[in-house]
Amino acid sequence: MSGRFVPVPTPETRTYWDKAAEGELWLPRCGPCAEFFFYPRAFCPACGSDDVSWARVSGRGTVESFVINHRAAPGYEGDVPYAIAFVKLAEGPRLTANILDVPQTPEHIKVGLPVEVTFEQRGDFTLPQFRPTAGEGAHQ
Ligand SMILES: [Zn+2]
Q1: How far is the CA of 68 from the centre of ligand 1 (A)?
Q2: 12 alpha carbon to ligand 1 midpoint, in Å?
Q3: Which of 4, 13, 91, 115 has the greatest CB tally within 10 Å of its CB?
Q4: Inside any domain, residue 4
Q5: Which residues on adjacent β-strands are paired with residue 65?
Q6: How many CB atoms lie within 10 A of CB 57?
Q7: Measured in angstroms, how far is the CA atom of residue 33 from the centroid of ligand 1?
Q8: Closest Cα to residue 87, out of 57, 109, 115?
């Protein structure tokens, strides 16, 4: 996948994008399981319940794995290399995101790096992304 995609909201993901535009990270949560999940969908992936509501999450997590992409998507040749990370949120779900505000090298982006959500404006969209938690890691 490209790290530079532009999302297409669906009815299931509309709340996610609307809240991101307000600078907040919200995720769907299953009523019976009381667990957050991602990506957004109408039914809980664990139990199948449609008792799904939305709540704001901390935006804090850790880098669980990452790849550093050295091949630019067309039109983004100036942006490589860039990292695509799987971030495991404190609440449990995993999101795929870029890690901003840090050199895109394995010396600076590590498995277990504490990160926090930040928001990147891309065209008409506000994308939830992550950066090293202030005061930890190699924040610059
Ligand atoms: Zn459930």
Answers
A1: 34
A2: 16
A3: 115
A4: no
A5: 86
A6: 21
A7: 4
A8: 115
Closest CA to 17 of 4, 27, 31, 30: 27
Which residues have a Cβ under 8 Å from the Cβ of 119 and sit 6 or more positions away? 20, 23, 126, 127, 128, 129
Report the CATH number at residue 89: 2.40.50.840
Supply 17's token pair.
């994008």
**Domain that residue 45 falls in:** 14-132
CA distance readout (Å), 30 to 13, 23, 40: 15, 23, 11
Q: What is the pLDDT along the chain (140 residues), one digit of tens a residue?
A: 445 566 788 899 999 999 999 999 999 999 999 999 999 999 999 999 999 999 999 999 999 999 999 888 777 777 789 999 999 999 999 999 999 999 999 999 999 999 999 999 988 889 999 999 976 544 44
Q: How far is the CA of 50 from the centre of ligand 1 (A)?
A: 8
